[in-house]
């Protein structure tokens, strides 16, 4: 079977929520890694509403770092956990949300990550997140998929670190121009899906949604990768 894994920085739902729901639905994701999900006030209700707008459910338990993993009906959640990453004085607290999912016999450990604007923090958190993902994947005999807002480009250190350990899905099977930021006039690819090198990447790129919705839903564009599981 194939599975669609997407990532989307939803900008705290501060833009057009109806447009956001339509874009998330258009992503057709079996697993959606979200950044800047609601994390204050009635954050659980906000995340549940965000997921429901695309026919998904919230799989991960905590609000740390504004990251979450949402899942659809074609996958079964086996395990979920959230981690606070190392704090840096004066910088926003970052986190990693992980869901272990099964789809027709194949097991994936999927992580949602939002790296900092500060380069040293990005590099540290990328390494910390990979170490966590490797431990979770080993416990469940799962293949790793790590996706999120990397806040840097492919030639920079944290991205290169992640791409050295996992496959940058867009680089393997690009679809479209790959640019993700800013949404209204994209000029940089700073959001990505990385997958275990043994995964078969069929395609990776943007989401087929109206331009007005893409520009109005968030300041980022989503990225969706289609992977083939099994043989």
Describe the structure.
The structure is a single chain. Helices cover 27% and strands 32% of the residues. The chain is an alpha+beta fold and 231 residues long. It has a single domain (2-228), classed as Deoxyribonuclease I, Chain A (4-Layer Sandwich). The strands form two sheets. It has a seven-stranded mixed sheet. The chain has a six-stranded mixed sheet with strand order 5-6-7-8-11-9. The termini are close together.
CATH topology: Deoxyribonuclease I, Chain A
Number of strands: 13
Tally of domains:
1
Helix and strand pattern: EHEHEEEEEHEHEHEEEHE
**Cα distance spanning the termini:** 9 Å
Biggest sheet: strands side by side, in what order? 3-4-2-1-13-12-10
Uncertain parts: none
Strand fraction equals 25-35%
Q: Kindly provide the radius of gyration, computed on alpha-carbon positions and rounded to a whole number of angstroms.
A: 16 Å
Shape: globular
Mean pLDDT score: 96
Global structural class: alpha+beta
If helices are DSSP runs of H or I spanning 4 or more residues, what is the number of helices?
Answer: 6
Largest sheet: 7 strands, mixed
Question: CATH H-level name... which superfamily?
Answer: Endonuclease/exonuclease/phosphatase
| Name of the CATH architecture | 4-Layer Sandwich
How much helix, percentage-wise, in residues?
Answer: 25-40%
CATH first level:
Alpha Beta
């Amino acid at each position: 079977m194939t599975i669609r894994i997407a990532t989307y920085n939803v900008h705290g739902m501060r833009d057009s929520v109806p447009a956001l729901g339509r874009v998330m639905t258009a992503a057709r994701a079996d697993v959606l890694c979200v950044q800047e999900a609601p994390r204050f006030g009635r954050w659980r209700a906000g995340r549940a509403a965000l997921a429901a707008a695309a026919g998904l459910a919230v799989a991960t338990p905590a609000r740390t770092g504004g990251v979450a993993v949402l899942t659809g009906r074609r996958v079964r959640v086996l395990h979920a956990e959230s981690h606070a990453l190392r704090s840096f004085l004066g910088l926003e607290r970052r986190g990693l949300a992980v869901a272990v999912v099964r789809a027709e016999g194949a097991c994936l450990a999927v992580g949602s990550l939002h790296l900092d604007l500060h380069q040293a923090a990005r590099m540290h958190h990328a390494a910390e997140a990979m170490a966590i993902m490797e431990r979770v994947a080993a416990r469940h005999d799962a293949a790793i998929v790590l996706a999120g807002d990397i806040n840097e480009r492919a030639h920079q250190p944290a991205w290169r670190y992640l791409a050295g350990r996992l496959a940058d899905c867009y680089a393997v099977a690009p679809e479209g121009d790959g640019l993700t930021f800013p949404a209204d006039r994209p000029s940089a690819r700073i959001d990505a899906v990385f997958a275990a090198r043994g995964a078969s990447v069929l395609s990776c790129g943007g989401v087929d949604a109206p331009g007005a919705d893409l520009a109005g839903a968030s300041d980022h564009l989503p990225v969706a990768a289609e992977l083939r599981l099994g043989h």
